[in-house]
Amino acid sequence: MEATKVIEFERPQMDVGSSCVASAWARVPDVPTSDEKVQLKKKIADLLKEKQAVLVAHYYVDSDLQDLAEETGGCVSDSLEMARFGRDHAAKTLVVAGVKFMGETAKILSPEKTILMPDLDATCSLDLGCDPVEFAAFCDAHPDRTVVVYANTSAAVKARADWMVTSSVGLDIVAHLHALGKKILWAPDKHLGSYIQMQTGADMLLWQGSCLVHDEFKGIELEILKESHPAAKILVHPESPAAVVALADVVGSTSQLINAARSMDAQEFIVATDNGILHKMQMAAPNKKFIVAPTAGNSATCKSCAHCPWMAMNGLRNLLQVLETGENQIQVDPDIGRKAKLSIDRMLDFAAARKTNVKASGDMAQDGKLFSGIGPA
Ligand code: SF4
């Protein structure tokens, strides 16, 4: 029988203003031998070609899947680029190696495509901690606020939002809304929300969810580690607690952290995000050294040990199986999908306008005019 592990995570109770400990589970993947890996990769590459499918993988999944995605013409990226790549690619089938909300986002953007995932039970503590019904009630209680949700949410939560954002563009979008005088209702990650609030000065009401991987990084242990590596630069994803963010040399999305690892003039880096990212960092800067930031403990005392248990559910075996059988198709209710697409498209339009037309000037009034045609905000 397949092994599973129980995972505890903080679940916000917004109606009573506190959190409780909830539990979920994840399958523990069976790691193939080196010889099996070679055979599995060959079969998967052949099937991707035969079925005119493309593999889209997140930076946090197993390094074999990341390599395979790139070797077969797919992509490895953060969730913003995964969404764009999947939408714009001509393939009729997308195989998304990541967690469920990423597959849903792909389906929402490309309802005509078949979206497969190695394991449909690969979820996320942020998604689990933001129930759509409770979230709708929270929004209804604050009708004066523009609703901005992070990508790590269900399709139903995105359908209730005005904007969806990823960590690479969230700060700019909230800055834009703030410049337009909007008050924000933000969900679900409290740490990312606090960071954006601090950077922009926006009026933000925060849902109290957290990522169980990033929530485990500890400021005090990080300070101690830094003492023994004084020349190291600290790279932090903003889903981490404020005490960890405060020690960062660079705060950014996964892509931004990889770019920093490549371009910064340092030989050593301490990295506070899922350790799956080290594969890409090491490829981007082969001569540099990367150290995972300290978590609360090891093994039994650590909830995640810097690796997402749900990202880890993506493996070569189940990837091959879904390609062979067509199992594990992502489905999204069409009505929910249509509503959710509005909030995702606003972000993609904003990101495209920023990339192609102009760079945000830093003058909020000016940038507000620039993007004022996008969305209801
Ligand atoms: S790393 Fe955190 S935010 Fe990402 S999928 Fe896992 S639990 Fe969710």
From TrEMBL:
<dbReference type="Pfam" id="PF02445">
    <property type="entry name" value="NadA"/>
</dbReference>
<dbReference type="GO" id="GO:0046872">
    <property type="term" value="F:metal ion binding"/>
</dbReference>
<dbReference type="GO" id="GO:0008987">
    <property type="term" value="F:quinolinate synthetase A activity"/>
</dbReference>
<keyword id="KW-0479">Metal-binding</keyword>
<keyword id="KW-0411">Iron-sulfur</keyword>
<keyword id="KW-0662">Pyridine nucleotide biosynthesis</keyword>
<keyword id="KW-0963">Cytoplasm</keyword>
<comment type="function">
    <text>Catalyzes the condensation of iminoaspartate with dihydroxyacetone phosphate to form quinolinate.</text>
</comment>
<dbReference type="GO" id="GO:0051539">
    <property type="term" value="F:4 iron, 4 sulfur cluster binding"/>
</dbReference>
<keyword id="KW-0408">Iron</keyword>
<keyword id="KW-0004">4Fe-4S</keyword>
<protein>
    <recommendedName>
        <fullName>Quinolinate synthase</fullName>
        <ecNumber>2.5.1.72</ecNumber>
    </recommendedName>
</protein>
<comment type="pathway">
    <text>Cofactor biosynthesis; NAD(+) biosynthesis; quinolinate from iminoaspartate: step 1/1.</text>
</comment>
<keyword id="KW-0808">Transferase</keyword>
<dbReference type="GO" id="GO:0005829">
    <property type="term" value="C:cytosol"/>
</dbReference>
<dbReference type="GO" id="GO:0034628">
    <property type="term" value="P:'de novo' NAD+ biosynthetic process from L-aspartate"/>
</dbReference>
<dbReference type="InterPro" id="IPR036094">
    <property type="entry name" value="NadA_sf"/>
</dbReference>
<dbReference type="InterPro" id="IPR003473">
    <property type="entry name" value="NadA"/>
</dbReference>
